[in-house]
Amino acid sequence: MTRESRPSGNARRESARHEGLPEGAALLLVDVQNDFCPGGALPVPEGDRVIPVLNRLIERFKAAGRPVYASRDWHPPDTSHFRSQGGPWPPHCVAGTAGAALHPALRVPPGTIVVSKGQDRRDDGYSAFEGTTDEGRTLADDLRARGISALYVGGLATDWCVRATVLDARRARLPVTVMVDGSAGIDPEGSRRALAEMKQAGAELMSSSGAAS
Predict the structure, then answer these.
(1) To 5 degrees, how large is the angle CA 204–CA 32–CA 203?
(2) Phi then psi dihedrals of residue 129, to 5 deg
(3) Structural domains of the chain in order of their starting residue, each with its CATH number
(4) Taking the CB of the first residue and of the last residue of the chain, which one, N or C, has fewer CB atoms within 10 A?
(5) How far apart are CA 177 and CA 22, in angstroms?
(6) Cα separations (Å) of 139 from 11, 57, 165, 210?
(7) Does this model's pTM top 0.85?
(8) One of 31, 35, 48, 159 is an active-site residue; which one?
């Protein structure tokens, strides 16, 4: 690309406006992993239905030149999070296993910032804000370093890790938009309560079509 053809800062800002995204926005995909999808060790009912929605959002953020984050459970095999060690859950998303991989249909772009959580055997790791990037930064530190001032969030599960992540983002005073049709929960009633709690905390609930909930 020549100097004359390289997009200017103004052009990049115009692209972001064209995509309907505020300056400083990033997309956070929460735990769209094989073990949380149908056929996995701890499946969210119809959890894979969020993938087409999230893929469309990924394309919007890519086109606007905005960052994409993807959190993942990345547990050791002997974590206290698991039922065999006194925790509430069956084994899932053990680091390095196929179940811990992001779902193959999720079209994460090159440069996606992966945030791994639940890595310590005493750490449940529900919120992406408990995780770290490959460089060892916390999510909060990485957002600050990249000048991120607003998050769009979707993924699995609405009533657990999406909820915990959104509430932590609001505690950090970040504007958050929850993509309701880009999220799925384990329990319908628990998911309704979680959405109400997130809204009460100041998050905006929105569908990928742009309609507020």
Answers:
(1) 10
(2) -75, -10
(3) 21-206 (3.40.50.850)
(4) N
(5) 11
(6) 28, 20, 10, 26
(7) yes
(8) 31
Catalytic entry in 48, 117, 159, 168: 117
Catalytic residue from among 35, 73, 159, 161 = 161
C-alpha 163/C-alpha 152 separation (Å) is 13
Residue 161 appears among annotated catalytic residues: yes
Q: Is 62 a catalytic residue?
A: no
Helices (H), 49-200: 50-63, 139-145, 163-171, 188-200
Among 78, 89, 111, smallest CA distance to 40 is for 89
Locate all alpha helices (DSSP H) within the chain, ordered by sequence.
Answer: 9-18, 50-63, 139-145, 163-171, 188-200
**Tell me: the pLDDT tens digits for 142-196?**
999 999 999 999 999 999 999 999 999 999 999 999 999 999 999 999 999 999 9
